[in-house]
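About this split. The held-out portion is used to measure sequence recovery: a designer receives only the structure tokens and must propose an amino acid at every position. Recovery is the fraction of positions where the proposal matches the reference. Here is one held-out target exactly as it appears in the evaluation file.
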């Protein structure tokens, strides 16, 4: 009964049968169609694909900026994209014809270069691991098997098709000339056996793989397969790495380059180092005719897990990388909330050595984020008259290549809509952001004891992207003024009137401190100067980005909750903060240590209101002695 159920489960569907019949019909037509006509039809299909699928055009444009020049602009880029898509479609169409060609057609269409070197490396018990890029008509490499009958084993790795009927038919076509095909879904046992016994084995070595190594390819790090290096090491001294590729030379004609040995430097014996040499060799092959490359797939794509943990991989990123791993971070519109993202940005910057962060923020925050180097490289404004996409197109930003990830930490729908022109990128946002078509979502709520808001961002990054936990470095203050001294008071809150303290108590506090400076933001300048005059103390009106110039580890700030305590904590100042409307465990200062929080825990606390609706504000019961500790 169980066997009958299994047979029923694997019974082909009607769609699979239709797919098989359609493929057989196509093969019958291709068998009698001259290769040049197939190539011409393939080019026509390429023009249709180019015109009809803008998302694919964007992928090709992204790839060409990486492999050719990051400064390629649309006028020249559009021409290259069209030519590549037409060439790729032609090669793909001809790949279907390749296995159906007669010997006479094959002799006219395919020229083999480097056959002797290719043959020698796979004979007498030696194994040639053929590293093949996605370029030209790579199906030729299965078709040329009869030219190497003196080599006992001639095999290639491949990926199975989802339609089992088509898979069986294509497998028979590929093996008809004696080429052994090894599916990665079947594991590596048979492949490793061939590597030990000797022969010729092909591996599409530039395939993106999330489970592989993070190494530069054309100067930009991406997931690459370590399989050629693994097979080479299993050969135990009898292995040879060869870069093998095909290039289109005319309509319906290709060269198969088979004889380029990959020479490994002395001492190059780790999987990472060998794979890096394979990448460099494939780059040289591809550079001979960039437009032959199959750039229609997302070669430098990013997924949720993007950071290498291995030290050697990180070193190779630095030594061979040219283009950074680019992250766009849209921070919350509220300045108070945006400060809590600083530890998360530091975590992203530390995740890999080629990481680069561009912050997208309101104009009011721009100058502050520009002081956050080296964590932040570029800052663009989301509410400026110049469109955000045009700001990102400026030469200074454009020169570093395409963007890889977009973190919508603020969830601004208008900004997200304007950023669609930079796609494709891997996009992350909170699950309550309301943004559609987001690849990865963070939890917007936290269960358990209250934790600092900054931990919501960092913990989501650690969990969502499997980043290393380095919290000790994330929450350190930024560069404050080490020579600054004295006491400061900040009686004005950015959260509203609910966060306040009576002026007479500020006066008592100043007398007991023996003097202080009133610190305020430009928005509160008139009221701050009047209060400072009444208290007979100096007044310092300070923009957010300048707070670190006046405060440091030797200063103390007494304040009500809001933006200024956060900025003071970032400068390393010790802060005592009245938390009237919010919970200190949740909204305490996220940078620095040793801060004190004072609250009068009435039934309505925390109220999260900007204006107190009670007869007597809860902060009015807080005493000067409590502030002084």
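Reference sequence for scoring:
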């Amino acid at each position: 009964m169980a066997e009958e159920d299994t047979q029923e489960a694997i019974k082909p569907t009607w769609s699979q049968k239709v797919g098989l019949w359609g493929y057989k019909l196509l093969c019958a037509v291709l068998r009698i169609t001259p290769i040049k006509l197939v190539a011409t039809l393939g080019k026509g299909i390429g023009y249709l694909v180019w015109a009809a699928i803008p998302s694919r055009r964007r992928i090709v444009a992204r790839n060409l900026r990486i492999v050719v020049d990051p400064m390629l602009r649309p006028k020249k880029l559009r021409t290259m994209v069209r030519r590549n898509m037409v060439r790729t479609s032609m090669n793909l169409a001809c790949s279907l014809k390749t296995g159906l060609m007669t010997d006479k057609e094959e002799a006219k269409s395919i020229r083999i270069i480097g056959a002797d070197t290719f043959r020698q490396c796979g004979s007498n018990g030696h194994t040639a691991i053929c590293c093949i890029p996605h370029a030209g008509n790579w199906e030729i490499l299965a078709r040329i098997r009869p030219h190497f009958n003196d080599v006992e084993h001639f095999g290639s790795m491949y990926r199975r098709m989802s339609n089992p009927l088509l898979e069986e038919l294509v497998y028979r076509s590929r093996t008809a000339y004696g080429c052994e095909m090894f599916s990665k879904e079947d594991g590596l046992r048979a492949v490793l056996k061939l590597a030990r016994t000797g022969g010729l084995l092909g591996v599409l070595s530039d395939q993106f793989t999330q489970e592989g190594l993070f190494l530069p390819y054309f100067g930009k790090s991406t997931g690459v397969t370590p399989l050629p290096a693994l097979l080479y090491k299993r050969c135990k001294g009898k292995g040879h790495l060869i870069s093998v590729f095909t290039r289109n030379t005319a309509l319906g004609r290709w060269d198969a380059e088979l004889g380029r040995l990959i020479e490994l430097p002395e001492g190059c014996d780790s999987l990472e180092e060998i794979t890096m040499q394979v990448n460099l060799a494939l780059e040289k092959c591809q550079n001979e005719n960039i437009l032959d490359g199959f750039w229609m797939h997302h070669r430098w794509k990013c997924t949720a897990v993007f950071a290498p943990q291995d030290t050697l991989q990180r070193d190779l990123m630095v030594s061979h990388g040219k283009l950074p791993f680019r992250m766009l971070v849209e921070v919350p519109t509220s300045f108070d909330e945006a400060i809590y993202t600083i530890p998360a940005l530091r975590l992203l910057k530390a995740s890999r050595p080629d990481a680069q962060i561009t912050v997208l923020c309101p104009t009011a925050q721009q100058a502050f984020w520009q002081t956050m180097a080296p964590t932040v490289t570029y800052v663009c404004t989301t509410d400026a008259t110049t469109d955000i996409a045009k700001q990102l197109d400026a030469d200074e930003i454009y020169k570093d290549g395409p963007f890889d990830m977009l973190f919508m930490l603020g969830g601004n729908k208008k900004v997200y809509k304007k950023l669609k022109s930079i796609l494709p990128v891997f996009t992350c946002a909170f699950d309550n952001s309301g943004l559609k078509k987001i690849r990865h979502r963070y939890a917007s709520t936290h269960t358990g004891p209250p934790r600092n808001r900054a931990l919501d961002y960092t913990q989501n990054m650690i969990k969502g992207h499997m980043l290393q936990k380095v919290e000790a470095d994330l929450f350190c203050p930024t560069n404050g003024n080490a020579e600054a001294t004295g006491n400061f008071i900040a009686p004005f809150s950015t959260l509203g009137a609910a966060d306040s303290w009576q002026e007479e108590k500020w006066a008592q506090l100043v007398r007991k401190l023996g003097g202080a400076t009133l610190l305020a933001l430009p928005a509160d300048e008139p009221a701050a100067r009047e209060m400072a005059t009444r208290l007979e103390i100096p007044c310092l009106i300070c923009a957010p980005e300048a707070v670190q110039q006046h405060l440091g580890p030797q200063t103390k700030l007494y304040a009500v909750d809001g933006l200024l305590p956060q900025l003071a904590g970032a400068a390393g100042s010790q802060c005592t903060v009245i938390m009237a409307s919010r919970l200190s465990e949740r909204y305490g200062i996220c940078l620095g240590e040793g801060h004190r929080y004072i609250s009068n825990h009435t039934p309505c606390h925390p109220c999260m209101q900007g204006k107190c609706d009670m007869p007597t504000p809860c902060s009015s019961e807080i005493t000067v002695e409590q502030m002084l500790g």
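Annotator remark: DSSP finds 27 helices and 21 strands in the chain.
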